[in-house]
Write a structure and sequence with these properties.
alpha+beta, 4-stranded antiparallel beta sheet, 3-stranded antiparallel beta sheet, elongated, 3 helices, Outer Surface Protein A, domain 3
Amino acid sequence: MSRIGLTPVDVPDGTEVKLEGQVVTAKGKLGEGSLTVVPQVAVSLDDGKITVKPRDDSKQARSMWGTTRSLIDSLVTGVTEGFTYTLEINGVGYRATVQGKTLDLQLGYSDDIHFPIPDGITITCERPTQITISGADKQQVGQVAAEIRALRPPEPYKGKGVRHADEYVLRKEGKKK
């Protein structure tokens, strides 16, 4: 039995949630999003709470129960609060700036990297060595953060590269004389 699926999703004030068949639509101050629910799971909305239950006892229905509840929770949280990801840049001469709809990165390559910012995502650079990615879609924010990190992942000897703010880079010992 899913412990996550048992907990109902609270709909905060100022957020409008509609349920039309198997499509859940949420609208809040940060935008609008929708989710198509698999047919093995039943979703109901009453008194500002969204409850998710499996339609039968099949393995597929039970496995999608908690997943669907988590996806709906992320949808509601995204349109009300949004999601934020922070990346840090380490290295001499490594820096980032935002120019309109592109993120310009200097990561030690001979040419600068011009990363186009997708729609629905906001990227800011408070410092030249810190990138803050925010948006309403949790999956899209994480995907953009992963793509930027993949441009120069942190290396284990000096720790240079782009890393998540809470990531610990396991350092290796260098050559011995």
